[in-house]
Amino acid sequence: EDQVTQSPEALRLQEGESSSLNCSYTVSGLRGLFWYRQDPGKGPEFLFTLYSAGEEKEKERLKATLTKKESFLHITAPKPEDSATYLCAVRGIKAAGNKLTFGGGTRVLVKP
Amino acid sequence: DTAVSQTPKYLVTQMGNDKSIKCEQNLGHDTMYWYKQDSKKFLKIMFSYNNKELIINETVPNRFSPKSPDKAHLNLHINSLELGDSAVYFCASSQDWREGAGELFFGEGSRLTVL
Q1: CATH number of the domain to which B81 belongs
Q2: How many interchain CB pairs under 8 A, A with B?
């Protein structure tokens, strides 16, 4: 069964203090690794899809990278508006339909 | 203009009652989903429909019954509510799952509290 573990559970940063979030995964074969952002009281919002080791995607201050066992979401010079919970999910080759397995998320708080 | 809308946003009810949550998407997607997010924030899939056909049915009690009248709507009916059903339920949609779309568009969630 596909598994996803995210660390740390929570992260407090000062504005401008860069950091990285970790997503460790176990799948029989990776069909895709996904990052989502979730604001309080809202549904998750899609950020990135990564398909193979070595792949990188960037969006503003966020950069996602992928290895065969984990993915990192790097936040460069974060701003208070980057405060949110970041969710990682995987789709394995044995997953029925378009089933995504999510991790528990990393809660990021960026203080001005 | 809302892409995926679900109603109601909040539900407070007594144990044993029956309740429904409705979901509609205007993105023209073929696949819709119900996810449950518990107090620890884990999102777990419950059901998925593709153009009104059930394609994912996870280990969910029979008290939960999804219904898709057309590909733009996916409703969730819950019978005999229990305390453990308290959670936030998210509806989502995507392009046809066979095309490998991992980008899900989520609604804002329906918070269910069972007393």
Answers
A1: 2.60.40.10
A2: 64
Which amino acid, residue A101?
A: T
What CA–CA distances, in Å, run from B22 to A28, B33, B52, B62, B72? 35, 12, 15, 18, 11
A29-75 pLDDT tens trace: 899 999 999 999 999 999 999 999 999 999 999 999 999 999 999 99
Residues of B in contact with A89 (CB under 8 A): 43, 102
Full domain range(s) for residue B108: 4-114
The pLDDT tens digits for B52-106 are 888 888 878 899 999 999 999 999 999 999 999 999 999 999 987 666 667 899 9
Q: How many distinct structural domains can be found in chain B?
A: 1
Helix, coil or strand: residue B85: helix
**What is the span of the domain harbouring residue A57?**
3-111
Going A27 to A84 to B88 to B5, the CA torsion angle's sign is: negative
How many domains, chain A? 1
